[in-house]
């Protein structure tokens, strides 16, 4: 769907099967920025390229126009289709320096962050052509540009992107969604990144990987709710982890969510952070 004059959103569905055989339906967003050429923000899981190419054709653009892929981070549901798109279209791939290793070596990523169905989600390794740092400016022709904002916490190499002049903020997975599974590796960095995003003035549209577009002042309310959610999780983990992890899930409103490896990784991050995060 078209979000602004230059930005289009693609909702890409996929499934995860837990170790106990439970199938979990998920989705992730990829974003197309239509300028003189086309910039793709995240690529979804393996085989998502056909969804992306079909959408581009329906909206009057040719997939060969993709000149740059910018990855908000290195996780499989964001880079799964990246190798295929790069191979087919010859475009450049950009990512934060702390994301490069996992993008170029997915086997290492799986060893360090094992998740169900990893091999089905990832399309293989991909060479990073442009290594990004906080504050970098990516020029997209004469009018559009992306400012790189390092927002670690969900992962070390997570970035958000601010599109000018439309003031569209692509946040990747930097903003935890209240009521959804919390997935991050560093609690203090998550809070710090959220506060960094909260300070950006006049954001018109927030585009995350796991939620519908949010506009205007609602952007800042969503960030505030995410901060409160992380604090609530922190309090629940410290208070109830000695009772049971199921009790922690119940306290944060996720009673029926299975205790999967990613949730445990998040809870362990809270256990490592004993101090007050307010």
From TrEMBL:
<protein>
    <recommendedName>
        <fullName>Metallo-beta-lactamase domain-containing protein</fullName>
    </recommendedName>
</protein>
<dbReference type="Pfam" id="PF00753">
    <property type="entry name" value="Lactamase_B"/>
</dbReference>
<dbReference type="InterPro" id="IPR036866">
    <property type="entry name" value="RibonucZ/Hydroxyglut_hydro"/>
</dbReference>
<feature type="domain" description="Metallo-beta-lactamase">
    <location>
        <begin position="27"/>
        <end position="210"/>
    </location>
</feature>
<dbReference type="InterPro" id="IPR050855">
    <property type="entry name" value="NDM-1-like"/>
</dbReference>
<dbReference type="InterPro" id="IPR001279">
    <property type="entry name" value="Metallo-B-lactamas"/>
</dbReference>
């Amino acid at each position: 769907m078209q979000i602004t004059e230059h930005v289009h959103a693609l909702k890409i569905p996929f499934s995860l099967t837990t170790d106990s055989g439970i199938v979990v339906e998920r989705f992730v967003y990829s974003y197309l920025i239509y300028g003189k050429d086309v910039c793709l923000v995240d690529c979804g899981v393996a085989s998502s390229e056909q969804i992306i190419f079909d959408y581009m054709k329906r909206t009057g653009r040719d997939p060969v126009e993709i000149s740059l892929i910018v990855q908000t981070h290195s996780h499989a549901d964001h880079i799964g289709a990246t190798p295929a798109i790069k191979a087919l279209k010859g475009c450049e791939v950009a990512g934060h320096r702390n994301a490069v290793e996992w993008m170029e070596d997915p086997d290492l990523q799986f060893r360090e962050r094992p998740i169900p169905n990893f091999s089905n989600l990832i399309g293989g390794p991909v060479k990073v052509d442009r290594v990004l740092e906080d504050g970098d400016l990516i020029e997209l022709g004469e009018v559009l540009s992306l400012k790189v904002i390092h927002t670690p916490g969900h992962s070390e190499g997570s970035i958000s992107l601010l599109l000018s002049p439309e003031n569209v903020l692509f946040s990747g997975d930097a903003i935890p969604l209240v009521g959804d599974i919390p997935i991050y590796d560093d609690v203090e960095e998550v809070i710090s990144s959220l506060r960094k995003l909260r300070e950006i003035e006049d954001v018109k549209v927030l585009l995350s990987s796991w939620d519908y577009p949010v506009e205007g002042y609602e952007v800042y309310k969503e960030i505030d709710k995410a901060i409160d959610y992380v604090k609530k999780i922190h309090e629940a983990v410290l208070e109830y982890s000695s009772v049971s992890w199921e009790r922690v899930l119940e306290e944060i409103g996720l009673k029926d969510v299975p205790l999967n490896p990613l949730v445990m990784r998040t809870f362990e991050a809270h256990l490592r952070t004993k101090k007050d995060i307010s």
